[in-house]
Amino acid sequence: QGPNFVDIDCSLEAEPKLGSLIGTVKDAEAGEAVAGATVRITDAAGKEQTATTDAGGNFKLKDLPPGPVSIKVEAQGFMNHVNQADIRASEDTRAALAKRARRKTY
């Protein structure tokens, strides 16, 4: 008697090729965390996602398509700031963003 063969049908799906952006927003002059800042990213297709920094100035945006993104940070009392980053599939891209205080005008 020869070997028995069993056919098993198992469909496989590739994991999504997405990345994350992890970062910190700090005051450029004092070096202190900027809590409550809005971090807005726009990918090459024009899709926007936002996150708000925690008490330590930290933020994380997940499930981002790979490619270049524009990062805009807005916080009360600070000048708007725009940076660029390159999101890589299955990786955490890190960004350290510094904000300058808005000058008071009298």
Gross geometry: elongated
Name the beta content range. Answer: over 45%
Order of helices and strands: EEEEEEE
**Main beta sheet strand tally, sense and closure:** 4 strands, antiparallel
Helix content: under 10%
Class by alpha and beta content? mainly beta
Query: Are there runs of 5+ residues with pLDDT below 50, and where?
Result: none
The total count of helices amounts to 0
Care to describe what's here?
With 106 residues, the protein is an all-beta fold. 0% of the residues lie in helices and 47% in strands. It contains no helices and seven strands. The strands form two sheets. Strands 3-2-5-6 form a four-stranded antiparallel sheet, with no helix packed on it. A three-stranded mixed sheet has the order 4-1-7, with no helix packed on it. It is elongated. The termini are far apart. The mean pLDDT is 89.
List the helices and strands and how they pair.
Layout: E1 19-27, E2 38-43, E3 48-52, E4 58-64, E5 67-74, E6 81-87, E7 92-99
